[in-house]
Specification:
Length: 580
């Protein structure tokens, strides 16, 4: 195969022998060998990320890593990598050798982080992986193990600080990436795996083998155990006991290659512990009554055991020397306690400071870190609603700036600095004054302009200006007044009164209105009287007409009801009709 086309993977090699007719010995045989081929992964097969580049740029050895980094743009804007940007080259696939990256990495503007908790310091030989702008974790390159790290770190949006800043690590130093060497042995020991099964399938050696084979095949098929598939470990020491419908089994995964890489077994151990419970597999009992029996895993207990060669310590199942700031104790490395230090890269104990000197914190790396006790300032206790960063109890220099964050409903006084030097008096937190306590209806009743932000608040010693409505004032020529918030208390607002000039104007307006109403009423009275006179004259004219009808009618008219319209009609000799 051409060098550029070689792949890392586990290949199945079948060896078949056929005996010539004139040869002695067995006739023929066939055997299968699983052959792990150590090669490399092509970095060009990783996904392209805008503004990002992978390091190294060409290829990565098996179980090595490629790391994504983001470059600044032409305008000087800085970018950071968010998501899983550390890809490991793995065996086990003929088409794609890299592990899947979840979530997919992207390059994002650093302003996302600066606006919150900022960027974490990267360890030497390692990287920071930001799951998002609020969560991050550390990784180390191939051949290095991560020492002294939490599983992940979070950003506190209230204090603006990452959780890596603690009493023992007030400066937020990153964890260590320490070079590793191959372990002598490494095992995953599975004990007490309890399996529910109704039939005693472990009654003899043949049954034990059938259960062992069925469980191993199932864990491999479910991608829970990978090291046996990839020929990095062997399945050994299987035990099986049955009592009261409960099967208790145990086995060991023995790492046989790549012993400098603990993740070969630790990742399998984590999957067994988290994914195996509740799984159900089948065992072929080869009995006449029922050939297939279902078995359900209820719980499992696991442990990883690592032994290291002389001159190296076991640290989190890796073998390495102790890093700087750490010393050898027992069979592992621990951080140097306060008052001691270590340059590291050895398995020696930490060195104690001389002349009764001390250190600021644990994990000191140099003799120069030993100082007089009087030079150490311990951050005091914050009041009930305040939070200090670094936190209470941290040992720092006297000129170390400490930030103060107040709890919900509290804030520093107006113009107060939110930092102070260790040894000085910390700024106090006060209750805030909520403007929502002053309703719009209350302001209107006091003739106060309702332009106050009801969602806002005032901090201690902060002033607010209250303005009267148009035509009102607090005192003569005083339409505005200031009030000061005092630890959550805001004085009662003074009611506004009408301006002096406004009272005269109001009187004039009222007089004009009254006079206008009087004029209108007089006009209406005149019209009513005129209508009355006009109606009287009309009535008199009609009466005269009726007299004329009565006088000239010959003979006297007869009253005949019109059955249809019921209208009484009188007719005079001239033929004129009059309706009554």
């Amino acid at each position: 195969i051409a060098e550029e086309n070689k792949k890392t993977g586990t290949y199945t090699v079948t060896v078949t022998y056929t005996k010539p007719t004139d040869a002695n010995g067995d006739a023929s045989y066939s055997t299968t060998i699983f052959l792990p081929v150590y090669q490399f992964c092509k970095v060009t097969e990783l996904r392209n990320v805008e503004r990002g580049s992978w390091t190294p740029g060409d290829k990565v050895d098996h179980r090595g890593y490629a790391t994504l980094s983001c470059a600044d743009d032409a305008d000087g804007n800085k970018w950071y990598m968010k998501g899983d940007g550390v890809a490991q080259c793995l065996m086990g696939s003929e088409n794609f050798q890299w592990e899947s990256l979840t979530p997919a990495p992207t390059c994002n503007p650093q302003s996302e982080l600066v606006e919150k908790c900022g960027l974490l310091e990267e360890p030497e030989f390692g990287d920071v992986v930001y799951k998002d702008e609020n969560t991050a974790y550390f990784t180390c390159g191939a051949g290095y193990t991560l020492i002294g790290a939490e599983q992940e770190y979070t950003c506190d949006s209230d204090t603006g600080a990452w959780s890596i800043i603690t009493k023992d690590n007030p400066n937020g130093h990153p964890p260590k990436c320490q070079a590793t060497v191959a372990a002598v042995t490494r095992h995953v020991i599975v004990s007490g795996m309890e399996i529910t099964v109704n039939e005693n399938v472990c009654s003899d050696d043949a049954g034990v083998d059938r259960v062992s084979n069925a469980l191993k095949a199932y864990l491999e098929d479910e991608d829970i155990v990978r090291c046996t598939v990839e020929s990095y470990c062997t399945w050994e020491d299987f035990t099986c006991n049955h009592a009261d419908s409960l099967l208790t089994v145990g086995f060991k995964l023995n790492q046989i290659t790549s012993l400098n890489d603990k993740t070969v077994l630790t990742e399998d151990e984590a999957r067994i512990k988290s994914q195996a419970p509740t799984k159900t597999f089948e065992v072929n009992t080869e009995s006449k009554k029922r050939a297939i029996v279902s078995a359900t895993i209820n719980k499992v207990t696991t442990d990883v055991a690592t032994t290291c060669s002389a001159g190296y310590a076991r640290i989190d199942n890796s073998c390495s020397s102790c890093p700087s700031g750490w010393g050898y104790a027992g069979d592992t490395c621990v951080p140097c306690s306060i008052g001691s230090y270590s340059a590291g890269n050895s398995i020696s104990a930490c060195t104690q400071c001389t002349d009764a000197k001390t250190t600021y914190n644990i994990g000191s790396t140099l003799a120069a870190a030993c100082v007089e006790g009087a030079a150490v300032c311990t951050i005091g206790v914050a009041d009930g609603v305040a939070t200090f960063v670094p936190p209470t109890g941290s040992r720092v220099e006297f000129d170390k700036l400490i930030s103060v964050t107040c709890g919900v409903g509290h804030a520093l006084a107006v113009d107060a600095d939110n930092t102070f030097k260790c040894g000085a008096t910390a700024p106090a937190c006060y209750e805030v004054c909520l403007l929502a306590d002053r309703s719009t209806d209350e302001l209107k009743a006091l003739f106060i302009h309702d332009n106050i932000d009801a969602t806002g608040q005032l901090v201690h010693n902060e002033k607010i200006q209250v303005t009267c409505m148009a035509g009102y004032e607090l005192a003569e020529d005083e339409p505005v007044k200031s009030y000061t918030c005092n630890d959550g208390t805001l004085p009662v607002f003074q009611a506004c009164i009408e301006q002096a000039g406004s009272q005269v104007l109001t009187t004039v307006i009222v007089c004009v209105v009254v006079l206008g109403v009087a004029v209108i009423l007089l006009f209406l009275f005149i019209i009513v009287q005129w209508r009355k006179k006009k109606n009287a004259a009309s009535y008199k004219a009609r009466t005269n007409d009726m007299d004329m009808v009565t006088t000239h009618a010959t003979p006297s008219p007869a009253c005949v009801p019109d059955q249809k319209n019921r209208t009484l009609t009188l007719r005079n000799p001239a033929g004129n009709d009059y309706d009554l």
